[in-house]
Amino acid sequence: MKKIIALSALVALGALGIACGGSDNSNNSNRSNANVNHNTNSATSNAINAVTNANTVTNAMEHPVNTLSNAAKTVANGVSNSNSKSNTKSTTNKSNK
Length: 97
Fold this sequence. Notes:
By secondary structure, this protein is mostly helical. About 80% of the residues lie in helices and about 0% in strands. The protein contains 2 helices and no strands. The chain is rod-shaped and about 115 Å long.
């Protein structure tokens, strides 16, 4: 009986070793999956960096555009104000001589 238990345990451990022991095909498959995941992560990271860089350029251009816009509004307000009618009557006192 002891021999049967020992042989059964040996067969069970052998089967477990084969199942978990990493044949070359499963290792290559896992390595391939890891490479695909790495490449996907790299591509995603590069895309995110490109968007971040585009946002940085956009933000850098925002200040000059706002400055030009404000200058144009100032000029437009100046022209508008110069066209409005102003009180041009003289208010000096004339003395009778």
